[in-house]
Amino acid sequence: xGTVYLDDLQVGPGNVSSANLVTDGRFAKLLVYWDxxxxxxxxxxxxxxxxxxxxxxxxxxxxxxxxxxxxxxNKSAKSTYILSGWTMLSSR
Length: 92
Prior knowledge:
mainly beta; globular; four-stranded antiparallel sheet; 0% helix
């Protein structure tokens, strides 16, 4: 089992770094815009790690933990998009 911490998630066109198609990628509204399933998934407030709120996921005995958000993109399949953010992992 392990825990992953995520924050500042962004998805945007490959040529524009300021555009973000993810709603609340900084988890300021906790998990309002996210579908959390399996394991332990929570939004945690802690100003000592990056921003004031981040996502913490701990896998279950089967190793599953998931938080998802559907991002609709009305562009051709040949368009390039970049996923960015920060993560920190710990395991036992």
